[in-house]
Amino acid sequence: MDDFGDDDGGQNRTGTWMTASAHIITAVIGSGVLSLAWAIAQLGWIAGTVTLILFSIITWFTAILLTDCCRDPVTGKRQSSYIESVKSNLGGLNYNLCGVAQYVNLVGTSVGYTITSSISMAAIKRSNCFHKYGHDAGCHVSNNIFMVIFGIIQVVLSQTPNFHKLDFLSILAAIMSFGYSSIGLGLAIAKIAEGKSGNTSMTGVAVGVDVTSSQKVWKCLAAVGNIAFAYAFSNVLVEIQDTLKPNPPENRVMKTATTIGISVTTLFYVSCGLLGYAAFGNKAPGNFLTGFGFYDPFWLVDLANLFIIIHLLGAYQVYTQPVFKLVEDWCYMKWPESGFLREGSPIKIPVLGIYRFSMLRLVWRTLFVIVTTVMAMLFPFFNAILGLLGALAFWPLTVYFPIEMHISRLKIPRFSCNWMWLEVLSVVCLIVSLLAAAGSIEGIIKFLESYKPFNSVS
């Protein structure tokens, strides 16, 4: 039986700053880190470094604002999801817009993680092929079978009842993210030490040499979108905060966890992005562990890709649990007496503990995984998809709603200095998001010119 008696009468929460930090690192240090060398190559040393640092500061600042908005301003009751926080603080149209932005992004991210994991699985197979037949061998393989394998594993993991049961998976995923980031970092340093690094510049890829002027603009915009995606986690921040114990105050603990998570992430991002660019130069691959900038030692490249796969198994759950909860809560409210929705008797599973079977959970979550897997097969565009997801989520979820809720809670007067600078920050980030989205859409259009459905090949 689950214990009850938390500060809002609900299930006892057991989360701490450590588990929250693990959730954040799992959510933030995802597949985005693998594209940072490519992003820096498009922007160059100066703009690339500045962009990384700015996104880090903005994400941290707005996340700190959001941690204070996770309780109803009137009743003080905890909000268990992002859209509930928006509803209680802003209501009306903002609630509907937030729901669309958040859940489209969560579903899109799960599709992106399916694509990324399949590329890493294929990279392991290709790495062994290169080791056997040489670097000139094509060794191309279809990604579709690996997407199916990832989907089958997710069908099992998706039976995890809720966010509160993900602590172990998130801690394991966070360790994996450190693992593959460190391996990538070490390989980049080794490549630089060998004197095999590529050509770099203050402004990135050279117009007239590497790209045309129009390509330079589009690729720079797409790179900004990739960096935005790399820092995205605000869309699950409220859900993570809802796992924390009520004492000490969960907003204070979440601020600590957020600061730790963003600081660690930024350290890895700056290191991987800048050293990755130093290693590969303007020809940095879109994913430096699967684009085969590194071939040897092949077993270490394989290990890094295995870490990525394990990490994304956990990250997928962090991003999909809010979607699962939304649909299941709606079903429970709509048909409270339905036997189909009722959980079965507790089953004791060795090591895993008590589990309650639910037919709704089995059917609905399995269907969700199947749909996202099929979508991944239809749209296998790694960098362009990451950039578009980052651009679409960054402004509304990371900037706009946290700022507007902060203004509403503190009743900051319109046109006051504080109000003005917050709104200017929001507008600037909106412009950046729109430009980044345009760059990513242009990249997707380019892919579609030669695209064949269900024919993703690594």
From TrEMBL:
Does this UniProt record's set of keywords contain Nucleotide-binding? no
Localization recorded for this chain is: Membrane
Ranges for domain Amino acid transporter transmembrane: 13-445
InterPro entries according to UniProt: AA_transpt_TM
Q: Which Pfam families match?
A: Aa_trans
Keyword check for Membrane: yes
Q: What is its main location?
A: membrane
Q: Which GO terms describe its cellular component?
A: membrane
One BP annotation, GO: amino acid transport
Report the superkingdom from the record: Eukaryota
Tell me the keywords, alphabetical order: Amino-acid transport, Membrane, Transmembrane, Transmembrane helix, Transport
Query: Which ranges does the record mark as transmembrane?
Result: 20-38, 45-66, 103-124, 145-162, 168-190, 257-278, 298-316, 362-379, 385-403, 424-448
What's the name of the protein? Amino acid transporter transmembrane domain-containing protein
Native organism taxonomy? Eukaryota, Viridiplantae, Streptophyta, Embryophyta, Tracheophyta
